Amino acid sequence: MAIPFDVLAEPSRRQILDLLLERPRLVGELTEHLGLTQPGTSKHLRVLREAGLVRVRRDAQRRWYELCPEPLAEADAWLAPYRRLWTDRLDALERHLDTMPELPGAGLPGAAGEPGPRGAGDADVPDARDVPPDATDGEAP
């Protein structure tokens, strides 16, 4: 069964799938987590059920909703070539960046403990590097 991506595009439905990934849940529990009304949650569950992403298990008066991972595997298989495309492109970018020479002074001020430049107007503003280690709050250095 093909899953239309519009079923997965709805954020509340993805959140339902995330919750069901942890464990089966009752409608009331899903409603509580989603912050939706019970009819709103039920509507999303119906769409997910029709897409084959969730199933219902009846236990007396209660209905437990469970994740059906098989259709998600189909979506994952469809996305695999695109994932490889991005991985290949990111690997190529990394190789390109590795071949570039390091520019002098390209480091960011303050990186790796390096002090940043101090401007002319900064002379009277104390910096953490100017405070002796034994000074406490409220005391002058």
TrEMBL record:
GO terms for molecular function: DNA binding; DNA-binding transcription factor activity. Keywords: DNA-binding, Transcription, Transcription regulation. Residues 1-87 form the HTH arsR-type domain. It comes from the Bacteria. Pfam families: HTH_5. Residues 101-123 have a biased composition (Low complexity). SMART domains: HTH_ARSR. InterPro entries: ArsR-like_HTH, HTH_ArsR_DNA-bd_dom, HTH_MetalResp_TranReg, WH-like_DNA-bd_sf, WH_DNA-bd_sf. Residues 97-141 are annotated as: Disordered. This is Transcriptional regulator.
